[in-house]
Design goal:
The chain has 474 residues and is α/β, with parallel strands linked by helices. The protein has helices spanning 7-27, 56-70, 89-101, 112-129, 143-158, 162-165, 184-192, 213-225, 248-258, 314-320, 352-361, 363-385, 412-427, 456-473; strands at 136-140, 174-179, 200-203, 229-236, 261-265, 290-293, 306-310, 390-392, 400-405, 435-439, 442-448. The radius of gyration is 24 Å and the shape is globular.
Length: 474
């Protein structure tokens, strides 16, 4: 089969795929997350490389059916796992448009409207942060790239020569600070940037699971006395484990006092800026020098979409701009080419899905979405307060709830084993999914409301499954 399909074939195949997607979306309120435990297979595929083509219609039907029947479905309303949402359908259609048009956003001259849409979307997000005047940013593949970019901006700001001459030229050892709950991408970024993971200071948590400002102050003072060069604090707005939000106001004051760059990893929780009612949960985020937000988390975008923003836009070019004679220049453009402010060169249009969702549904739809999920999580906390078998293990700030089995006679290892058994029992049928994690080194159970399809009935079914698992364990 040739690549240039005729119009009739394109339409027939396209409508067929849309029908499959529509049926899948219709099933999500009650769809199981995965197959029952005994039916799951993790063996690799062993098909030989096809030399000749096959019937496209049959293949599309087969692969879609296989992915649905045997897949792991994070868009299900019964998924209470990590930060992978049910994507908005408008976002799905936007992805189809982007795949079909395949715009290249490296330069404005080659993608005039596509680049302007991305810049406008970045402006919308920055305005919700509370910034006015000059700020800029760019879409990324996700939080890892965005956090990497934030640390690169901090390096470029505090050590201007490092981009050309490297870390080894500084003559001092730069250090940065993050909480013990900070995302693993901070460790990864420190290694990739050449700072070294040993230069990352993991600061203990307060009782509210926030980075402890007092210990941070003591650590900075000790590092300065030891001849080291602190340059950046990474605060977290919505940790993966517990949803905790660091005291951004206090950390901003510490950074001002010591002339440090404040980067806020708000990959998940930063999206609460779209809610007028709950924006106070990330109060002080506007004082950050750079911010990570992942629309493919709480803003319900299809993978992948991250954003890095900074109120020091000149640092984007200092950190990332590289001249290339073959790149077309648009001298009349008021927007900086994306390739000059990003780690990426080839640039996919990851902004269209958020731009279109906001145009179709409006910001107030996110206000309702955020408020509803917070209320559902709060109702789960209320259930825990009256549960015979479980108790809350940490404060609930965002729609993430961590809790533990009520078995005080159990030691840490036995409690972790009990939690693992409960997770296996609750997820064994494949209908729903929760997880076990660790908070301050202690085993806890974790659930979060992430799908906009999740209703009280789904939480009630989860509570019944948890109760049954606890009774079986007892």
């Amino acid at each position: 089969m040739r690549f240039d399909l005729d119009s009739a074939t394109r339409r027939r195949l396209g409508y067929r795929v849309i029908d499959h997607i529509d049926n899948f979306f219709s099933s999500l309120p009650d769809r199981a997350v995965q197959l029952p435990a005994g039916q799951r297979s993790f063996d690799p595929l062993s098909n030989p490389l096809p030399e000749a083509g096959a019937d496209a219609e049959s293949l599309l039907d087969n692969i879609f059916g296989e992915l649905v029947d045997k897949g792991f479905h994070v868009p299900s309303a019964n998924y209470f796992g990590l930060m992978n949402p049910t994507p908005t359908y408008i976002g799905v259609l936007a992805e189809l448009i982007v795949a079909g048009l395949n715009p290249q956003l490296a330069t404005t001259k080659r993608s005039q409207l596509a680049s302007k849409i991305e810049h406008e979307t970045v402006r919308w997000v920055g305005e919700r942060v509370g910034w006015s005047g000059d700020f800029n940013g760019t879409f990324t593949t996700g939080g890892n790239e965005a956090n990497f970019s934030g640390l690169a901006l901090a390096l470029a700001a505090k050590f201007p020569s490092v981009i050309e001459d490297g870390i080894s030229s500084l003559g001092v050892r730069p250090v940065l600070y993050a909480s013990t709950e900070a995302h693993h991408s901070v460790d990864k970024s420190a290694g990739l940037l050449g700072i070294g993971r040993k230069a990352l200071r993991r600061v203990p948590l307060t009782r509210n699971l926030q980075l402890d400002p007092q210990i941070l102050e003591q650590t900075i003072t000790a590092d300065l006395a030891g001849g080291l060069k602190p340059f950046c604090v990474v605060a977290t707005a919505g940790t993966t484990n517990s949803g905790a939000v660091d005291d951004l106001v206090a950390l901003a004051e510490t950074c001002r006092r010591h002339d440090l760059w404040l980067h806020v990893d708000g990959a998940y929780g930063g999206s609460v800026i779209f809610s007028d009612r709950h924006r106070g949960l990330v109060g002080g985020i506007e004082q950050a020098d750079s911010i990570t937000i992942d629309p493919h988390k709480w803003l319900a975008m299809p993978l992948a979409a991250g954003v890095i923003l900074t109120r020091h836009p000149e640092m984007l070019e200092r950190a990332f701009a590289v001249a290339a004679p073959y790149m077309p220049q648009a001298a009349e453009s008021r927007n900086v080419d994306n390739s000059r402010i990003s780690t990426q060169w080839t640039r996919r249009m990851n902004s269209l899905k958020l731009w279109l969702t906001l145009r179709v549904h409006g910001r107030r739809a996110y206000e309702e979405h955020i408020d509803r999920q917070l209320r559902l999580a709060g109702s789960f906390v209320s259930w825990l307060a009256n549960s015979e078998h479980f108790e809350q293990a940490a404060p609930q700030v965002l729609p993430i709830v961590v809790f533990r089995f009520k078995a005080r006679r159990l030691g840490p290892e036995a409690l972790a084993a009990a939690h693992s058994a409960i997770v296996e029992e609750v997820t064994g049928t494949g209908q729903r999914w929760i997880s076990e994690t660790k908070i301050n080194g202690e085993s806890v159970l974790r659930m979060m409301v992430i799908s906009y399809l999740t209703e009280q009935r789904h939480l009630q079914a989860l509570q019944e499954a948890l109760t049954a698992a606890a009774q079986a364990l007892a």
